[in-house]
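Sequence in, structure out.
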Amino acid sequence: MDTLTSNKTYTEQDTFPINGTDYIEFYVGNAKQAAHYYQSAFGFRIVAYRGPETGARETASYVLQQGKVRFVLTSALYPDHEVSRHVLQHGDGVKVLALWVDNAADAYNKAVERGARPFKAPETMKDEYGEVTIASIHTYGETLHTFVERKHYEGAFLPGFQARESLMEIQPIGLKYVDHCVGNVELGMMNKWVEFYQDVMGFKLLVTFDDKDISTEYTALMSKVVSNGNGFIKFPINEPAQGKKKSQIEEYLDYYHGAGVQHIALATDDIIFTVDELRRRGVEFLYVPEAYYDTVLERVGEIKEELEELKRLNILIDRDEEGYLLQIFTKPVQDRPTVFYEIIQREGARSFGKGNFKALFEAIEREQERRGTL
C-alpha cells in the first residue's frame, strides 16, 4: 500500500519506530454524504468500504485516499451507538490518529508501560489478503492513537473492508501527505500532553510558542510542537491564554465540548494549483487583507512563485533558516466552528509560519466576530 516511508534512521529517543500517518478516522453524522464532499471538493477517491453490505451491522465506513493521505469516514446505523454519541457531543470530528508502525504489539506494550491509558489490546485480523495487527491507546480528549502493523497485508485497507472505487470522476488536487495534526486542549493541560508525547512516545519538543508569539489585541494562545525522530509525525498542542476576549481555542473547546483535533495540515508541491482547485470547488478560506502583501517580501525575501498569484489566492508566506513555506487555512468544514484544514507547501522550511500568526489570528477573530463568539 502507498504509505509514508523514510530511509532516515530513528533517534535514540523514540520509544518505537513510527513510519508515518496510516490513516485519520472521522466520526461523522452521514458518512456517505461526507465521502461525496471529500471526493468532489478535495479530490479524494474511495478505495474501500465496510458496512451492512459487507457484514458490518452497526457502522458504515468509507476509506478515501489521495497521495499518502488516507481518511476513514465512519457513521453509526443506530442512535445508541458510541459513534452516534460521539457525533452528538462533538459534531463531525477526528476520533483516531492512526500511526503506521513496524510492530503494533511492541508499540502498544511500550506505550502502556510508559504510562499510556490502554484502549484496545493488540488484535490480529486476517483475510485472503494477509493480516494486520492493530492496538490503540488514549490521548487528549476522546482522541485515540491506533498503531497499525500491515507489513503482511496486500488488501485495500484492513480486513473486513472491501475494495471500492468512486462512482464519480475524481480529479485530485495535488495533496501528498499529512504534514501535521494540531490538537486543542483545555487551559493548563498543554504541558501535560506534551509530557505525554515525550515520556510515552519518546517524541522531542520541536518548538514552543507563547502568548507573545501568538496574540492579537484581543486574544492569545500558547502552543508547543512535538515530533517523532524522523519528523514524519508532528503534533502541535494548543491551549488558551489570557486575553481580552474569547480565543479561537476557547471557542473550539466550547463547540467541540472538550479537547480534540483542531486542524490537519495537508502538504502539496503546488499550492497555487491546489488552492485554485479548492476555491473553484467551493471550499472557503480565511481572508487576509491585501495590505499583508505590501511588505511580505521584505520579510521573507525571494521566492520562486509570483506574488500576484499568491495574493490572488490569499496564500500566506513565511521563512525560517532553512527555506520558506506557503500556507493557507480553510474555514471550518462543518457548521460547528471546530475542524478545519491547512494547505501547506514547504520549500525547505521546517517551521510553522510564525511570521503569519498575527495575520492569521486576526482573520480567525473576524470569523468569530461574525459568529458572535469573540
